[in-house]
Amino acid sequence: MRDLLLTLIVFGSLPIIFIRPHYGVYMWAWLTYMTPHRLAWGFAYDFRFNYIVAIITLIAVLKSKEAKIRIPLTLPSILWMLFVCWTTLTAANALEQGSAWHEWDRFLKIQIMVLVTYVLIKEKEQLIILVGVITFSIGFFGVKGGLFTLLRGGYFRVMGPEYSFIADNNTFALALNMVLPLTLYFMHTTKHYIVRLALLGVNFLCIMAIFGSYSRGGLIGLTAMGVIFWITSRNKIISLVIMIILVPSSIMMMPEKWVLRVTPMIESLNLPFLKETINFHPTSVFSYDFQTELSLKKNTIIPLTESESLIRKDAEILQDLSVMGRFDAWAVARAIAADRPFLGGGFGAFTQGTFDHYTPGVSFHDAHSIYFEVLGEQGYAGLIIWVLMHLTSLNYGRWVIMRCRKDPELYWASVMAKMLILGLLGYYGAGFSLGLAYYDLPYHYLAILVILRLHVQDVLDSRKDMPQKARNISFPSRAAHIFPIQQNNLTEK
User: Fold this and answer.
1) At 303, is the pLDDT very low, low, confident or very high (cuts 50, 70, 90)?
2) Which candidate, 215, 251, 310, 475, has a CA 20 to 30 Å from the CA of 207?
3) Whether the Cβ atoms of residue 61 and residue 160 lie closer than 8 Å to each other
4) 31: number of CA atoms within 13 Å, CB side?
5) pTM score, two decimals?
């Protein structure tokens, strides 16, 4: 039944996409980020619906008379195109040619749809719908994972959808970090009380899902994002009180094995109220009987004290191995960049053969960092282009925030830019220990920031061309239904 329903939805949307190509961007985002076919059990499970949607969208763009195939020549978009070209050059000179071209092919398909986003998404409604689709697609699994964490007392890790970029618990936590601010955007811009409460619940469940993922990188990203959000918040006292209540209560909901995994990170923050929470942490505030489940699995009765000691010992061993694996991967990235500073090792450089060449006797690991991943695979030149691409896009978002935060008509753009930047900051924080440099969501965020600035600039230019009398009449009517108080003040002045 799920297979048929999904097939009807996708194929039923194709005629609409052919007529209005920008709907293809929405559908592709839904299929890519939510991967709904993985929720089916039959023929749809492995069916590549997103490829069909992408092909029809590209055909529609080529045939459309309204859609002009033109990429905005801004500094971020130029750096983005340069980075895509650079990855092609490094793939041609990669250490592992087979895996390099496979990863390059995957990366290029993502960038083609980013290009389509640049071409088709222009207006306010289109931007809001696209952001809404992304929020729903990943937030769905956040709600599902948060409920699972609460019902199971946090004893089992929350994972992402199978065979996707975010299937692993760490990458799943990173994606939730990026989506959390977007739920705040819709909370901030909606007038409906019930919708705001529902979005607040979604926010809480996504946070619980990040906790339930057992991802320390995800917690680092959440912490970085929370600090920046508090610094930029207007109500700092209220925000601080909420954080002091929410964070310790979330920790108290998790079992001891979770606490053992994240204790070193919490102690490094040197926050007294968090340290006290760890010191006085109970086994769990939930009544989930972990001892019974452990006994059923081993068909023996194990005292709780013994199980606790086993959990503690295993957690310490796994933690040491995880940390050492990251250091080994970062050492290999630096060695590759030192040996090949200009081109790096190309896609798929982190293999056992590469580790044997640069660090003999060490087992290979993932890059475990977006920064070292780009450094090792794209070289210093590629890393510089990648960093500049992100910095210039963030600067575009900052411009939108500063220009629109006191403008009733464009205030929505200011909030959206702020939340996109917060999501990217969560990505940069979590990405310090996670290798997800080629995930499609950050590239989509960068494109949306650029499109957002261009849209704001078009609105401002149109105001300059509008006669003063007409501007005074039309401007209030477009925003008064959203911000009546601010607009009334503006008209009185």
Assistant:
1) very low
2) 310
3) no
4) 26
5) 0.82
